[in-house]
Amino acid sequence: MRKSYRVKSEKDFSLVFHQGDSKANRQFVVYSIEKEQKHFRVGLSVGKKIGNAVTRNRVKRLIRQALTELKPYIKSNVDFIIIARKPTKDMTQAQVKASLIHVMRLQGLFHTDPSRPVERKERAESES
């Protein structure tokens, strides 16, 4: 994911934490707030309770990969923060993606259902 898709500043993080709402499952907590912007932005938080730096970076890579795959389904006008909980350190890529879909669906972050395939814009335009 490009840097423009990230929530980086402390000010933005605290705005999402304090004014946004949250949903959680056993693996993740997701805070979100609606904003006026061209695309969604995401912040990741993987604490030291998860493990050493190698483990934390692995979890972040798995989350980023899942978000890249889910990108076509995510609403464009939201900032959200994903906080990883302890069970994520032993999860596979498929488990991370399934868990993220679950908690993001609870939070209402999808404009279409990720279980259905999305048609590409080029395909839709050529049929018109």
TrEMBL record:
Q: Which is one GO molecular function term here?
A: 3'-tRNA processing endoribonuclease activity
Q: What class of enzyme is it?
A: hydrolase
UniProt KW Metal-binding keyword:
no
Q: Which domain of life is it from?
A: Bacteria
Indicate the transmembrane segments per the record: none
Q: Which Gene Ontology CC terms are recorded?
A: ribonuclease P complex
Identify the keywords attached in UniProt to this record, alphabetized: Endonuclease, Hydrolase, Nuclease, RNA-binding, tRNA processing
Q: What is its EC number?
A: 3.1.26.5
Q: Does the keyword Kinase apply?
A: no
Q: What is the catalytic activity of this protein?
A: Endonucleolytic cleavage of RNA, removing 5'-extranucleotides from tRNA precursor
Gene Ontology biological-process annotations: tRNA 5'-leader removal
Q: Which Pfam families match?
A: Ribonuclease_P
Family to which this protein belongs? Belongs to the RnpA family.
Protein function: RNaseP catalyzes the removal of the 5'-leader sequence from pre-tRNA to produce the mature 5'-terminus. It can also cleave other RNA substrates such as 4.5S RNA. The protein component plays an auxiliary but essential role in vivo by binding to the 5'-leader sequence and broadening the substrate specificity of the ribozyme.
**What HAMAP family does the record tag this protein with?**
RNase_P
Q: What is this protein called?
A: Ribonuclease P protein component
Q: What is the native source organism of this protein?
A: Aerococcus mictus
Gene (name only): rnpA
